[in-house]
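We emphasize that the prediction below concerns an isolated chain of 289 residues; any contacts that depend on oligomerization or on bound cofactors are therefore not represented. The input was used exactly as deposited, without trimming of termini.
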Amino acid sequence: MTILENDFLRVQIRSQGAELTSIQNKQNQLEYLWQADPQFWAKHSPVLFPIVGSLKDGQFFYEGKAHKLSRHGFAREKIFDIGSASNDKASFHLSNLENFQDDFPFKFDLNIGYSLQGHSLSVTYTINNPADKPLYFSVGAHPAFKVPLVPGRAYEDYFLEFSEPENAPRWPITKDGLIDSNPQPFFQNQTRLPLTHELFARDAIVFKGLKSTRISLKSDKDSHGFNFNFSDFPFMGFWAAPNANFVCIEPWCGIADSVDSNQRIEDKEGIIRLEPKGEFVRSWSIEVF
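Result of the prediction step, given as a token string:
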């Protein structure tokens, strides 16, 4: 377990999946991250790579050959190498020096960096293409945050606040984990989404092209929460397991296959094409209060 610490925060990351496992405010001892109760969901903050969501029939096609990948890809199950570490920074590295070729026929280098500054934790994904042909991939975050944050509060005491009024529709997920072809009305010029367990009764709530670049978890009944900052992630998901006391805020560069997908990786919605020797970088951060 790698521990990062400054005057305000204490953060833990494990090598399996380079997964964030704890964000603790040292000043008030509040834990902000879901602690992976296996009765509900035994993960904290998995990294989604090299796909986000599910593939149609669990596979994609490239150069005429089928390749199988499970939902959200394999990175979350792999042991990452620790690239560097100091008191308030650490990086974790995964490449396909292992034999991923049957499942994922592309060379890649994936680096995940964690950095503390004041009351904020930044998470950066850097993907490099060391090959002489394009790399096709998706990457996304899946952090789960405790709700309620403090004793004596209820799940329904909290809400998500958006930095911009939103009018985006919801894209439903089918029983096979695919994106339906018809969106449903959801936001109506709103900046606030009240949390209820019923909100996630039909799986994750998925959006395309939100205007906001900041989403805050707040309550009118106490002063504790956080600001979740992100940019250049074209897709966003919100999710919680049934009756579980957490909410996932999931910025994605990629999305599950649609029901109409032709399964060709080059044509997949949201797929990133990274040219030979190219680099792709995206970051999100959380500021606690």
